[in-house]
Amino acid sequence: MLTIADVTEIGIGMLGYAFMGKAHANALKKMAYMTWPPPLEPKLVGIAGRNAEAVQEAATRYGFEYATQDWRDLVADDRIGLFDNSGPNSLHAEPTIAAAEAGKHVVCEKPLGRDAAESYDIWQRVAATGVKHLCAFNYRFVPAVRLAREMVEAGELGEVRHFRGRYLQDWGDDTSLDTWRFDPQAAGSGALGDLMTHVVDLARFLNGEIESVQGFAHTFLAGRNVDDAVEAAVQFANGSVGTLEATRFAHGHRNAFQWELNGTKGSLIFDMERLNELQVFRADGDRARGFKTVLVSEQTHPFWEYWWPPGHIIGWGDTFMHELHHLLRCIADDTDVEPYGATFEDGYRASEICDAIVRSGESGAREPITFR
User: Fold this and answer.
1) Which of 126, 133, 139, 372 is deepest in the core (most CB within 10 A)?
2) Based on the domain organization, do 124 and 201 belong to the same domain?
3) Position 370 in a domain
4) CATH value at residue 349
């Protein structure tokens, strides 16, 4: 029988202790026993953040050995093998590059950089070190999304003709909010980097590369210096067309990431607010002609070997465990993060497409996508 001594450890250094820090720390702690045996045993070594009291409280709560206000302490710590960057967008570049150049594997929250140029620089400099790198597009690791990808790969939808994706939230319509997400220096953009990058990445993950976009970004509140909503029509390399939308002003939608694929043999619909369900339509002569709800919780479904008996659903936070488990497996086995995990190249490409949407809005013209 395996014991804890039989599993190799990997030290974790984390930058950021709030929303994403909590999600990542929870996933790493849970992984040790839910995926037994884990590919590597995560050991929470150090956590960094700018507020001394808050980061110390986070270290105590999550179980890190120490807290620091300087992320450089994590980079210099030889016990740390994986640097987890869950900090604000303005702190994605320098710490991540420094950690990789110190020989540490890296995972960085999305968007990879505040714009395509910064994202490209991060990707190129980290890739040159040879470490494993993952951009944290966690929705690739929703069981229903992975099942959809497998169905597309198996040809079950036939020739895909349409992709529709939208990420709708409603918290942005509040002038009293004071968050770095509304600071263009810290965030780089608004709904574009926060939400549209997710839509773009899932579009690429499920339907392939995007060739051109025509769209715009819009700000509703006077004085706000980042976009509140983004809209785009897109052309894919496989000949299909699509629409992409992201907003933080859709009242009634708390966290609705919704997408739809239409093919010659069938269609799929997903809504993240119904995380464990996939709507499936097969154009097979069924007289009912309706979508069927598939509860993605069977032992044969993606990621379900870690969880419960069929029908006992999982939650949003569990997608981070799937994602980080995938990265640790790639580190342990020296295998590629892609195609199911998003690399820093994927993070860069999402930023390049998002920047093209902004340029299209400024020029009024359709923008071809050109990768550097």
Assistant:
1) 133
2) no
3) no
4) 3.30.360.10
Look up residue 35 and give its DSSP letter.
T
Structure tokens at 253: 């939608």
C-alpha–C-alpha distance, residues 13 and 15, integer Å: 7
pLDDT band at 32 (very low <50, low <70, confident <90, very high): confident
Q: In this predicted model, what pLDDT tens digit does every residue of 194-239 receive, in sequence order? A: 999 999 999 999 999 999 999 999 999 988 999 999 999 999 999 9
Note whether 297 and 171 are same-domain residues. Answer: yes
Does residue 25 sit within a domain? yes
pTM, two decimal places: 0.96
CA–CA dist 193, 111 (Å, integer): 6
The angle formed by the CA atoms of residues 229, 233 and 235, to the nearest 5 degrees, is 145
The reply to whether 210 and 341 lie within a common domain is yes
359: part of which helix (H) or strand (E)? Answer: helix 344-363
Handedness of CA 183, 189, 193, 196 (dihedral sign): positive
How many of the other CB atoms lie within 10 Å of CB of 239?
11
pLDDT tens for 274-288 read 999 999 999 886 666
- Assess if residue 97 is contained within a domain: yes
| Structural domain span for residue 83 | 4-139
| DSSP secondary structure letters along 251-263 | TT-SSEEEEEEEE
Same domain as 308, residue 251 = yes
Task: Report which of 354, 27, 337, 92 is spatially closest to residue 198, judged by C-alpha positions.
Answer: 354
- Contact of 14 with 86, CB cutoff 8 Å: yes
- Number of independent structural domains in the chain: 2
Where are the strands (E) in the chain, listed by range? 9-15, 41-48, 66-68, 80-85, 105-109, 133-136, 160-168, 210-218, 229-236, 241-247, 256-263, 266-271, 277-282, 292-295, 367-368
CATH of residue 50? 3.40.50.720
Mean pLDDT score, 350-361: 98
pLDDT band at 3 (very low <50, low <70, confident <90, very high): low
Q: Are 161 and 244 in a shared domain?
A: yes
- Helices 52-62 and 19-34 meet at what angle, rounded to 10? 20
Give 154's DSSP letter: T
Residues 83 and 179 in one domain: no
pLDDT digits (tens, 9 = 90+) for 114-148: 999 999 999 999 999 999 999 999 999 999 999 99
